[in-house]
Design a protein that fits this description.
- The chain is an alpha+beta fold.
- It folds into three domains: 4-102, Rossmann fold; 131-203, ATP-grasp fold, A domain (Dna Ligase, domain 1), CATH 3.30.1490.20; 209-461, D-amino Acid Aminotransferase, Chain A, domain 1.
- The protein has helices at residues 11-23, 40-44, 62-72, 88-96, 106-113, 115-124, 139-153, 176-194, 251-267, 299-306, 310-318, 399-412, 422-428, 432-436, 443-446, 455-475; strands at 4-7, 27-33, 47-52, 76-78, 100-101, 157-161, 170-173, 199-203, 209-217, 223-235, 238-244, 272-280, 286-292, 335-342, 344-345, 351-352, 360-362, 369-373, 388-396, 414-416.
- The strands form five sheets. The protein has an eight-stranded antiparallel β-sheet, with helices on both faces. A five-stranded parallel β-sheet has the order 3-2-1-4-5. Strands 7-6-8 form a three-stranded antiparallel β-sheet.
- Strand 10 (223-235) and strand 11 (238-244) form a beta hairpin.
- Helix 4 packs antiparallel against helix 5 and helix 7 packs across helix 8 (176-194).
- The two termini are 42 Å apart.
- The mean pLDDT is 93.
């Protein structure tokens, strides 16, 4: 029987992992809840196990995942991202049950998942960080601690959930009045989202660049970085566009950040793939933000510029193999940009378009183009899960070539049915600050005109061309 690996996730990341598993000559086992019974990831896998009616709750059930792995006789579980990927208890249960967890050790996941503990580890290692607090005390004492920190460091500050992640559990605070009103609400939201109401404060870095470094670390003492990514274009602290390498022109600064990322991973006794994230202020000072203990959504841009399959290396590291390359073997070639094409309405605060059917799906392609997704013509956008349809990643030799390729791909991508983020991205890729690489985390707020587009005209033109192509193929005897 072939080695079997269970993928404890869904959607495009499950598909991504399935492909890597199969390319290694192993069998991929998918899991699914009832709303996903026609999902592409279970059709692509070698086997699929139903874990419940859901929605979402069964993908979050540790015992059901472990039971499915045992039923499938899987030797390992890949958690993907989201759901259980950063749950230290999931990693620990896998370890106790003798199932290989494709990721860091459970203690590492726990330490780095707690932002206050992570800050302590980094402080001990001399990693630069913005001023921050420990976990704030409960009740009035916690409010007094928060007000004291703000008095010492000044507003604005960021109120953060200690167990937060993915842009959730973060609030900007600009006054004492806001602090007293927001702190209890932040605790309630943190408890609901992460089952932990602990919160802490950090001094806010105004309009920084958000730069991260991809790390791979094996069991033989080798920790390697794969260069930088820039994730500065965000909405509500969630990434919209990712690129690699960072467009910052100060190469010495980026080299220092990469070296610091390796040092940070080593300080945390890190194993497998991870991402060390930093903020860079207007004066080129950089500060540790966090370490994500999983594969990132935006890993595709790093793979495009390095030619290194991160997911394949994740699996091999977990199975006890050493990294097959050294730091000096990692060569950065050109630029890559990823956009997340979601079934959302950017003009309506990015409201999801769940429940709508994709009536037309004509994807783009060509040299230097990669698509990671699960949508197709006839696909119904699930209301129960995230609204991601497909990730579009392009690669080019120069930044200008890469931006031009992305613009061409967006113009040629036709999706009809739900509203999507395509026309929103089309405005960004022709905007002068984006083209020149001048952007930070305030980009969306400072460029409101990118929301000005006529979606119906744009989509209608694509649809008309699509219908014309179908008609032409029927009329032309040579079209086949």
């Amino acid at each position: 029987m072939k080695t079997r690996i269970l993928i404890a996730n869904r959607g495009e990341i499950a598909l991504r992992v399935i492909r890597a598993v199969q390319e290694l000559g192993f069998e991929a086992v998918a899991v699914y809840e009832t709303p996903d019974e026609m999902s592409r990831h279970i059709l692509t896998a070698d086997d699929a196990i139903w874990i419940g009616d859901g929605p979402r709750c069964d993908y979050l059930n540790i015992q059901k995942m472990v039971t499915a792995a045992k039923k499938a006789k899987a030797v390992a579980i890949h958690p993907g991202y989201g759901f259980l990927a950063e749950n230290p208890l999931f990693a620990k249960v896998c370890e106790e049950e003798g199932i290989i967890f494709i990721g860091p050790h459970s203690k590492t996941v726990a330490d780095l998942g707690n932002k206050v503990v992570a800050r302590h580890i980094m402080a001990e290692a001399g990693i630069p960080m913005v001023p921050g607090t420990k976990n704030l005390s409960q009740g009035r004492k916690g409010i007094d601690e928060a007000l004291g920190f703000a008095a010492e460091h000044g507003y604005p500050v960021m109120l953060k959930a200690t167990s937060g992640g993915g842009g959730r559990g973060i609030r900007r605070i600009d006054s004492d009045e806001e602090m007293q009103a927001q702190l209890p609400m932040a605790r309630s939201e943190a408890l609901a989202a992460f089952n932990d109401d602990s919160v802490y404060l950090e001094k806010l870095v105004l309009n920084p660049r958000h730069v991260e470094v991809q790390i791979l670390a094996d069991n033989f003492g080798k920790t390697i970085h794969l260069g930088t990514r820039d994730c500065s274009i965000q909405r509500r602290n969630q990434k919209l566009i990712e690129m690699a390498p960072s467009h910052i022109q100060n190469k010495k600064l980026l080299d220092t950040i990469c070296d610091t990322a390796v040092k940070a991973a080593q300080a945390a006794n890190y194993l497998n793939a991870g991402t060390v994230e930093f903020l860079i202020d207007q004066d080129d000072n950089f500060y540790f933000l966090e370490i994500n203990t999983r594969i990132q959504v935006e890993h595709t841009v790093t793979e495009m510029i390095t030619g290194i399959d991160i997911v394949r290396n994740q699996i091999n590291i977990a199975l006890g193999h050493s990294l097959p390359f050294e730091q000096e073997d990692v060569q950065i070639r050109g630029y890559a940009i990823e956009v997340r094409i979601n079934a959302e309405d950017p003009k309506n605060d990015f409201m999801p378009e769940g429940g709508k059917k994709v009536t037309v799906y004509r994807s783009t392609g060509g040299f230097g183009v990669r698509l990671d997704g699960m949508a197709y013509q006839g696909y119904t956008v699930p209301e129960e899960y995230d609204s991601l349809l497909v990730k579009l990643t392009v690669h080019g030799y120069t930044w200008e070539e890469t931006v031009g390729r992305l613009a061409r791909c967006l113009n040629n991508f036709a999706i009809r049915g739900p509203k999507t983020t395509i026309p929103f991205y089309k405005n960004i890729v022709v905007e002068k600050d984006f083209i020149s690489g001048h952007f930070d985390t305030s980009y969306i707020e400072t460029h409101p005109f990118i929301f000005h587009y006529d979606e119906e005209a744009s989509e209608g033109g694509k649809l008309a061309r699509f219908i014309a192509e179908i008609h032409h193929s029927k009329e032309n005897p040579f079209a086949k």
